[in-house]
Amino acid sequence: MSQLDPHQNQPVLHLGEPLAGAHGAVILLHGRGASAEDILGLSHELRYPGLAYLAPQAANHTWYPTSFLAPQAQNEPFLTSALAKVKSIVDEAIAAGIPTERIILCGFSQGACLSTEFVARNPTRYGGLIALTGGLIGTNEEVAAPARPATLAGTPALLLSGDPDPHVPWSRVEQSAAILTAMGAQVITNRYPNRPHTVTQDELEQANHLVATIAR
Description:
By secondary structure, the protein is an alpha/beta fold. The chain has one domain: Rossmann fold (3-Layer(aba) Sandwich), CATH 3.40.50. Helix content is 31%, strand content 20%. The protein is built from six helices and seven strands. The protein has helices spanning 36-40, 78-95, 110-121, 140-144, 170-182, 201-215; strands at residues 12-16, 24-29, 51-56, 103-108, 128-132, 156-163, 186-193. The protein has a seven-stranded mixed beta sheet with strand order 1-3-2-4-5-6-7, sandwiched between helices. Helix 4 links the parallel strand 5 (128-132) and strand 6. The protein starts with 11 loop residues before the first strand and ends with a helix.
């Protein structure tokens, strides 16, 4: 494992169709302390024929070491490595003939933050973003500072979270939703009062509806 690029050579688990034969892909990003196997279990809830489900494993089960609210520099080089890992999977899907309009990024907790940050840093028309308890990464000033192009072009985005949540303040979910909307995404937020740090059946149903749009 390279200290400068810790996630580079980590495995990517795969269920469903081979990329070369799939007409859509769902990239699943696990939370802190979890695994690719854990998040790949969501594919059983979001399972449609014809789709490839890809779940990379973070080095030491952690995409970045500190809170997503910390200054970005405190999470380097892990954050840059994690974003590069996601991009390599997106690029692999594109090379296999799957357009970004049929690629969905989905994550829980730390994986939701990484998914959201990736979409904001690599804006185009995606099949969707499903952020299950997460938001953009960095301090409030860092999140608000970049001039972000309005090129998400109608990308559907679900930002779903409990409130209060021990790791993700609802204010960051709202801030992230506003930024993604300004970038051209079609954002839906849903606040679940007093919901534990988990994924509810209602969230899975909403995610399922979004995944269905690339399975048609």
